[in-house]
From TrEMBL:
Descriptive protein name: MD-2-related lipid-recognition domain-containing protein
SUPFAM superfamilies: Ganglioside M2 (gm2) activator
Keyword terms, alphabetized: Signal
Gene3D superfamilies for the chain: Ganglioside GM2 activator (2.70.220.10)
Organism: Macrosiphum euphorbiae (potato aphid)
Source domain of life: Eukaryota
InterPro entries: GM2-AP_sf (IPR036846)
Signal found in the keyword field: yes
Amino acid sequence: MALKDSFGRWRENAFVLKSPKACSSLKQLMGNIWTAYKYGNGLKNIDCPIPPGVYIAPGMDTSIFNSNNNFPKSFFYGTYKMHLYYSRNDEIFGCQVFIMDIKRP
């Protein structure tokens, strides 16, 4: 995860997490929003492991990330860029990039 500094540059590797069994780990992290997350990424009738294929993501309501998940409940405010890489035996076969703006309370 990269953090945007006060000069507008990205500081890479501000937070790094490697997890085996990516789908199961992501499902646990998403908690109760897992189904909405799957549908938003075009994975309607699919569970872990996600089979190879082409999936068309219709988009999702990002307000689902505000509650009912297992994300850390407190985090330093700022703008973050999160890269999710899906790999097996050091071969990357998928990725997603999210930019999150965590507001000051």
